[in-house]
Design goal:
By secondary structure, the chain is an alpha/beta fold. The protein is built from 13 helices and eleven strands. A seven-stranded mixed beta sheet has the order 1-2-9-6-5-3-4, sandwiched between helices. Strands 7-8 form a two-stranded antiparallel ribbon. Helix 5 packs parallel to helix 6, helix 6 runs parallel beside helix 10 and helix 10 packs antiparallel against helix 11. Bound molecules: nicotinamide-adenine-dinucleotide and zinc ion. Nicotinamide-adenine-dinucleotide binds next to helix 2, helix 4, helix 5, strand 8 and helix 6.
Length: 364
């Protein structure tokens, strides 16, 4: 299955399906690259790098492997710098290619490196997590973290193509798979018609990735992201901002717990979406059943729907929400006037938010 991200001259194709890694050579667009750096991590490399490397060699490309430690800590300026030095040592030129093979960490890091090396070389995204196949590999946002916060340094750099091999998801740890399912559920709340309405989406994705995820299901999600990116490539008009649904509280939960892993990104976003639904309801934007419908869908995917007993208190979260990189005026959130109808609201009342947080903590 293929999905196109329509961006004029910068348009590119997302290929989704089984056994695509070994067909990287065919799925790459026209072009001649003399060298390729395959950036991957210590978990993904041993499983999948050889397929990609062998395939690239069939295109006559000289291949160099660059493996970073698995984990968010590799999304750092230091690791980016090491990779840049490596490219320079390999005598990489403007006409060479960086291939990012792995999850969002590798995609963001390698995309960033590709965007700044000699003011930009081509990057090929080969996402291997559900999160990266439906979200991070599409749209050209790249970046690394600073001590002061996540994704504070970055660029926009669209890939030349995205190759999403759904077969690679079978080795994904369960918690990582469920984290991706939270983004899938997000698309289903923002664009229910794409998933055949309620409860369509839950039938599309198996309880565990080990069962095998259909390419069609992943492609539907990729198409939602691709369309939003086409409309609002640079996050300027608000269309792309709607993808931040559930992320205001989600990011606050991650940041207030120091990204120690109490909540995976998807778990934090799942709780954040129930919170956003509760806020929408409290403000009279949607019907009273929506928070409960959110909770039952997310719960059925194995995701948490309430912050839990050890959660940070609301004041800590409020502080983190106020510091949110994407804030506009005052406390801003994406809310829903019902499923499928996102709106962005600023200057939200902290007292109302506190009440909604207590409410979801007790169960909606
Ligand atoms: N650029 C964007 O638009 C965007 C959007 C959303 C998220 N992100 C970023 O993405 C990152 C998170 O990405 P992620 O959730 O993919 O995490 P990740 O890249 O850390 O991958 C999760 C874990 O799974 C392992 N793994 C990856 N693929 C595997 C496979 N097929 N089999 C077995 N193990 C595998 C990895 O080694 C890692 O340990 C965050 O840094 C986030 O900021 C970026
Ligand atoms: Zn997210």
């Amino acid at each position: 299955v293929t999905v196109t991200v329509e961006l004029g001259d910068e348009s590119y194709v997302i290929s989704v399906g089984e056994r695509l890694l070994e067909r990287t050579d065919e799925l790459l667009p026209e072009g001649t690259w003399s060298k390729a750096a395959v950036v991957t991590d210590s978990n993904v490399g041993p499983l999948y790098a050889a397929r990609v490397e062998n395939s690239l060699r069939r295109r006559g490309v000289e291949v160099h492997a660059c493996t970073v430690e698995a984990g968010e800590a590799s999304k750092s300026p230091g690791v980016a710098r090491d990779l840049l030095e490596r490219l320079a040592a390999l005598d990489f030129a403007r006409t060479d290619l960086v291939a990012a093979l792995g999850g969002g960490v590798v995609g963001d890091l390698a995309g960033f490196v590709a965007s700044v090396y000699m003011r930009g070389v081509d990057v090929l995204q080969i996402p291997t997590t559900l999160m990266s196949q439906v979200d991070s590999a599409i749209g050209g946002k790249t970046g690394v973290n600073l001590e002061a916060g996540k994704n504070l340094v970055g660029t926009f750099h669209q890939p030349v193509a995205v190759i999403a091999d759904t077969g690679s998801l079978r080795t994904l740890p369960g918690r990582e798979y469920r984290s991706g399912l939270a983004e899938v559920a997000k698309y289903s709340f923002l664009r229910p018609e794409v998933f055949g309405g309620d409860p369509g989406m839950t039938d599309d994705f198996p309880a565990s990735a080990a069962t095998g995820v259909e390419a069609d299901a992943v492609a539907r999600c990729a198409a939602v992201k691709a369309q939003v990116v086409s409309i609002d490539e640079r996050d300027a008009t608000g269309a792309r901002a709607a993808l931040n649904y559930g992320h205001t509280l989600g990011h606050a939960l991650e940041s207030a717990t120091g990204y120690r892993g109490e909540y995976s990104h998807g778990e934090a976003v799942a709780i954040g979406m129930v919170f956003a639904a509760a806020v929408s309801e409290r403000m009279g934007l949607c019907d009273r059943g929506m928070p409960g419908r959110h909770a039952s869908r997310l719960g059925s995917l194995g995701l948490p729907v309430a912050p839990g007993s050890g959660a940070p208190d609301f004041d800590a979260l409020l502080g983190a929400m106020r510091r949110d990189k994407k804030r506009r005026s005052g406390l801003t959130m994406v809310l829903l006037e019902g499923e499928g109808k996102p709106v962005i609201r600023g200057d939200l009342d902290p007292v109302l938010l506190r009440g909604c947080y207590s409410r979801i903590a007790e169960g909606v």
